[in-house]
């Protein structure tokens, strides 16, 4: 069976999506409708527990919605069988607050790991990994171990790993959460660079300064509902 | 598929929980070698049974001047017609393969040959002590001995019936008992091995949860995520099997040595050993493979 990808449609499409976790009365997301177009840069803001992480997990199909439909990269996630999920995830890169690098592997090996486990040939890996190390600004640090790097550098490695397979979408869950403001600017520059290659970036964040300075689309969630969706928005006054 | 990558991961996994791996190898080795010993036992018993089956005869002793039974004492030595009658009756029985008449002299000679190692015993037996007999070859020495014996016992001219297979019955019971004990212990150990495999794989999955989390995140297929663990279990099983092969070769040598205590011995051939070794390999790999697979289904979900 072939899944026909819609090239023109939105990259992420939520259609009255509700997600209620078991044993909880209040839904984590409630009738969310939104579209993210190809190549967009979107900030996802809102207080803790507003549903940002649930939103990201739904895109990755780590969770299934209680109600509504989700299309990611043209695929209806409800009709995606379990064994097709890895193929979906190959088109999505992920960056987290806690970096999630493998401590026993060097920078190069950490990035190469992402390609090895999806069965890419060694020749290809040897070609693209140095390229992406340069792209995130870690020239000459390929042989370093994660514990020899600063937090900002570790996050750059994580971004390189997320981007090395040239995903359609990059999801970033508070990527600057563990990093000081000065270093965060560098991280945002890398995300911007990735976005300019045509990759859609969705970034959940609490960092008002970053959101205000970037002037990108801002989606604000509160109690699982979209309360604001603004292009060229700011973080908001209330926080 | 990148074999180098998979085996690299397997090596890391085996090294990280070395104690568990060693325990697993030992238990697999012992359970497989016990199971194999049980199988060798089965083969040995079958070989022995076949060999003895072909040798076992029913001896129908005829009345003579030194009878044992009161019937002979009363009626005197078997007459020619009686002897002919007995032969006729035997030949008509469906279980009987052939009947041969053995004279007193022939029986004595046979007796002297069989007990040659005990000259005192031989010297105490005089000509005439052993009567003439019909040696009856049966189709199935064990099953047919009873009915044939019942038919001829009490016929005029029959003194007593000697049945070699009754001696064997006890011997077989002993062998079967030993075999069953070995197999029961082997099964208990196999259950222990299954639990150890499950535990080792679970530990391994826990140790490498970071790696597997990232693998799932970047879209590695289930097969790719699980294969290193599966191979890990199989390799431990394979090492256990190799140890078991050595132990089984020892067990065969032991069984061969045991054979020297029996007058007619049958040693197991090398092909018997190879067959048992292959069966245990199959069982070992199946056991480790399926257990790993089932454990992984529980601990490594998408």
Describe the structure.
- The complex is a heterodimer of chains A (239) and B (302).
- Chain A is α/β, with parallel strands linked by helices and 239 residues long.
- Chain A starts with 11 loop residues before the first strand and ends in a 9-residue tail after the last strand.
- Chain A has helices spanning 52-59, 85-89, 107-116, 122-135, 151-163, 181-196, 208-214; strands at residues 12-19, 29-36, 41-45, 67-72, 75-76, 92-96, 169-173, 200-204, 217-222, 225-230.
- In chain A, a hairpin with a 2-residue loop joins strand 4 (67-72) and strand 5 (75-76).
- Chain A contains seven helices and ten strands.
- The longest helix of chain A has 16 residues, at 181-196.
- In chain A, the strands form two sheets. Chain A has a six-stranded mixed sheet with strand order 6-7-8-3-9-10, sandwiched between helices. Chain A has a four-stranded antiparallel sheet with strand order 2-1-4-5, covered by helices on one side.
- Chain A has two domains: 7-91 and 169-180 and 198-230, 3-Layer(aba) Sandwich (Rossmann fold), CATH 3.40.50.300; 101-166, no CATH class.
- In chain A, 31% of the residues lie in helices and 23% in strands.
- In chain A, helix 3 (107-116) packs across helix 4 and helix 4 (122-135) crosses helix 5 (151-163).
- Chain B is rod-shaped and about 100 Å long.
- Helix content of chain B is 73%, strand content 8%.
- Chain B folds into two domains: 3-52 and 169-299, no CATH class; 57-163, Alpha-Beta Plaits.
- The longest helix of chain B has 43 residues, at 165-207.
- With 302 residues, chain B is of the alpha+beta class.
- Chain B starts with a helix and ends with a helix.
- Chain B is built from eleven helices and four strands, in the order ααβααβααβαβαααα.
- Chain B has a four-stranded antiparallel sheet with strand order 2-3-1-4.
- Classes of the chains: A alpha/beta (239), B alpha+beta (302).
- At the A-B interface, helix 2 and helix 3 of A face helix 9 and helix 10 of B.
